[in-house]
Amino acid sequence: MVVAIRIPVRIVVLVLVVPVRIAWDALVVAGRLLTDSVLRPLGRALLWLGRTVLVLPLVALWRYVVVPAGKGLGLLGHVLVVVPLGLLYRYVLTPAGHALGWVARAVGAGLAWLYARVLAPAGRGIGRFLKGAGILLAALGTGVFAVVARLLHHLLVVPAQWLYARVLTPAGRAVAWLVGAVVAGIGAVLYWTARVLLVLPARALWHWVLVPVGRVLAVVARETGTALVHAWRVAGYVSRAVWRFLAAVFRWVVVEPVRWAYRTVLTPVGHVLRDAVLRPAAEVARAVGRAARQALAGARESVRQVRADLRRALFGEPRRPEPVDRRELADRETRTLGSSTTALTKD
C-alpha cells in the first residue's frame, strides 16, 4: 500500500511544485536585486535626509537654545526664588521656630507637672477601687456560672446524649444502608446501560473504523510530506536548469549582439572621435587656458606696478631702514652702556 501511494503522490506533487519553485526562485532573485539596487540606497538616503533635516537641527536647538535658556532660567530661579527663601528661612522661620519650641517646652513642662502631681495620684486611687470591685464581681459571677452550668448539664446535655445514642444513631444507620442499596442498584443499571449503548459501539468504531482510517491517513500524510521535500529538491534542480537556459538564451540573443556592436562599431567610432575631435579640442582648450592665465598674470603685474607708481607719486619714496652695524668690538674691552664704567661699578 505504501508503494502504491508513494509513486502517484510524488508524480502529482512534482508536477505541482515545479512551477511554484521556479516562481519562488524568480521572486528571490528579484527581491535581492530590489534590496541591493533600490531599498538599501533608498534607506541610506532617507537616513541621511532624516539626520540632516531632523537630528542636526534638534541637536543645534538643544545645544544653542534650550541649554542656554535652561541655564538662564536656573540662574534666574536661584536669584528670585532660592535666595529669598533661604533668607526667609534663616531670618524669619528659624527664630519663629525657636520661639515656638521654647513655648512648647514650657507647656510640656507644665503638663508634666500636672500629670505627676495631680493626674497620677488620682489614677492610682481609681485603679485600686476598680481592682477591689472587680475581684468581688468575679467571685459572684463564678458561683452563678457554676450553678447555671450544672442545671443546663442535667436538663439538656444528658437527655440529648440518650436521644442520640438510643434513637438517632440506629435510625441513621438504617436509612444509610437503604440509600446505599438503592444507589448501588441504580448505578449498576446505569453502568450496564451505558456500556451496552455507548462503550461497546464506541470501542468497535475505534478499533474497526477510526484506527485503520487513521493509519491510512498517517501513511498518506507521511508520504505527502516526503514527496513535498523530494519534489522541492528536484524542482530546485529543474528551476536552476530552466533559469540557466533562459540566461543563456538572453546572453546569445541580447548580450552578445550588444557586445559585438560595442566592440566592432562603437569602439572604433569612439577612438576616431577621440583622436580626431576630442584630443584636438582639448589641446586647443588647454592652449586657450594657458594664454588666458598668462594674460591675467600680466594684467595683475601691470595693476601692481600702477599702484606702486601712484603710491610713490602721492606719498613719496618709502623710507628705508638705516643699516645697523652689528659687528663685534675690535679691542678686548668690555662692552658698556655708553660710559667708561661697567654696570657693576657705575655711580
The end-to-end distance, rounded to whole angstroms, is: 137 Å
Low-confidence stretches: 343-347
What profile does the largest beta sheet have?
none
Query: What shape does the CA trace take?
Result: flat
| SSE sequence, one letter per element | H
The value of Rg in angstroms is: 60 Å
Tell me what portion of residues adopts beta-strand conformation. under 5%
Arithmetic mean of pLDDT: 81
Strand tally is 0
- Assign the structural class, choosing from mainly alpha, mainly beta, alpha/beta, alpha+beta, or little secondary structure: mainly alpha
Report the helical percentage. over 70%
Please give the count of helices: 1
Keywords: Membrane, Transmembrane, Transmembrane helix
Transmembrane segments: 12-34, 46-66, 73-93, 99-120, 132-152, 172-192
Biased composition (Polar residues): 336-347
Region (Disordered): 317-347
Please tag this protein with its features:
single chain, 347 residues, mainly alpha, disordered C terminus, transmembrane helix, membrane, transmembrane
Description of the molecule:
The chain crosses the membrane at residues 12-34, 46-66, 73-93, 99-120, 132-152, 172-192. This protein has one helix spanning 2-315. The longest helix is centred in the middle third of the chain and has 314 residues, at 2-315. It is flat, with a radius of gyration of 60 Å. The protein is 90% helix and 0% strand. By secondary structure, it is an all-alpha fold. It has one helix and no strands. It has a domain at 1-115 and 146-249.
